[in-house]
Amino acid sequence: MTETEKIKKQYGYENASAADVLTQQQIIAANEFCEDYKKFLDDCKTEREAVNTVVAQARGRGFKPFEYGKSYSAGDKIYYNNRGKSLILAVVGEKPVDAGVNIIAAHIDSPRIDLKPNPLYEDGEMAFFKTHYYGGIKKYQWPTVPLALHGVVVKKDGTELEIRIGEKDNDPIFYITDLLPHLADDQVKKPMYQAVPGESLNVLVGSLPVSGEGGDRIKNAVLKYLGENYGICEEDFISSELTFVPQMKARDIGFDRSLIGSYGHDDRVCAYPCARVLLDMDYTPERTAVAVLADKEETGSAGNTGMNTNFLYDFICELAGGQGVNVRKTLAASRCLSADVNALFDPNFPEVYEKRNSAFINHGVCLTKYTGARGKSGTNDASAEFVGLVRKILNDAGVVWQTGELGKVDAGGGGTVAMFIAKLNIEVVDIGVGVISMHAPYEVVSKLDVHSAYNAFAAFVRNSK
Question: For the residues of 178-232, what is the DSSP string, one character each?
Fold first, then answer.
């Protein structure tokens, strides 16, 4: 070994691919883990579906509904279902909660196309739904994509109806039209963000009229269908949460099947491992372990099911009160992994990445000290001490991990729920799976990276120091 090689080995840093570090058995385990993750993706295309699925799994593994005012003891497994759209899982630890709580927090909402309150109209002998997109999307990516309709309708009599149309093989699907290239000279000359205006993301839902005379015969045909098959009238749309999501299922990508393509990796690729860590817990941890699956991250975490509200704070207050300990001490001693995705280096668009500080596919879960935009605006910036602790936890557990930023400093940026958790005086750092084509209708992740996230979260909640 040359002197240069010795120095590099002793003092240098080089992140290796998981494929070069893991055993064949570990790679097989990662692939098996991701089979269940793919099913989760197909079953949980909205935050409501994710909550329902995880609650059912939690009940099957001995978790009980959280009760205000109740005192919980070591080993108790509880869940707090916040209005059907966000969820907390917890396993009470051996130490009192003022020794600190280990929290992993992800979000379960994804960019999508929502219906407007008064959506249905007829034009050009076709029926459409007017929409309002949810979260940060490239609008031009959504036309011509097969869509399914998911959500809930609260009808005029107060009953609640769940809707899921387009996922079964014999279901109809839905569609946003686009302009043919033969007539698109003006469209293609526009900036990409202007080529498809938000008000043109109208979803095609029918074309055959009801018999007879008069106007809106195609719209009325749709209303008749909805009334006869679902008991829905037009006014019911006002009290509904209906959304269009890509109809495609999660599939392996590549000859080696090492990647997963799907809608909704951001951030269910972190939410699923978070939940699994708590669901798989077959021991009583020393520190109470908490997993948070939050709503509304893609629109700024506002609202009573998002992280910029008190539902996590209230939950921890209840745990502390039930044990007769100081909640402020509990929060100050607690720590959190904000489990959210980062961007993977994409060689097709190298100009927006700073390669030395980018995450790479198959290199493990990505630890991100800060997010934000440009001058670290709108971010939690984790302390060196906490980053050092997390780094040690990952290394001691043999987790394959890397670090990375969200592109070049002036290229853009993004945020996570970390800043809202830090507001509670909790130590927090971002860590999550890297994604290719983030916020697209169909995103890509690595199976090895997904399993690395699970291993990282499991190591973190086990740590008692």
Answer: ---GGG-HHHHTS-HHHHS-GGG-PEEEE-PPPSSSSS-HHHHHHHHHHHHHH--
Query: Which residues of the chain fall short of a pLDDT of 50?
Result: none
The two beta strands, 147-154 and 160-165, are antiparallel
Which residues on neighbouring strands pair with residue 367, listed in sequence order? 403, 431
Buried b / exposed e across 358-370, counting CB within 10 Å, b at 16+? bbbbbbbbbbbbb
Residues 6+ apart with CB under 8 A from 375: none
Q: What is the pLDDT of residue 9?
A: 77
430 closest CA partner among 398, 395, 396, 402: 402
Q: What is the pLDDT of residue 151?
A: 98
Amino acid in position 256: D
Tell me whether the omega of the peptide bond preceding residue 267 falls within 30 degrees of 0, making it cis.
yes
- Residue 99 contacts residue 349 (beta carbons within 8 Å): no
**pLDDT attached to residue 12:** 79
The kind and range of the H/E element at 73 are: none
Buried b (16+ CB within 10 A) or exposed e, 215-252: eebbbbbbbebbeeeeebeeebbeebbbbbbbbbebeb
> Are 128 and 207 a contacting pair, CB within 8 Å?
no
pLDDT at 51: 98
pLDDT of amino acid 444? 98
DSSP state of 99: G
365 within 8 A of 402, measured Cβ to Cβ? yes
Which three-class secondary structure state does DSSP give residue 140? Answer: helix
What is the SS3 assignment for 297?
helix
How high is the pLDDT of residue 275? 98
Q: Are 46 and 165 in contact (CB under 8 A)?
A: no
- Exposed, middle or buried by CB within 10 Å (0-12, 13-18, 19+), for 463? middle
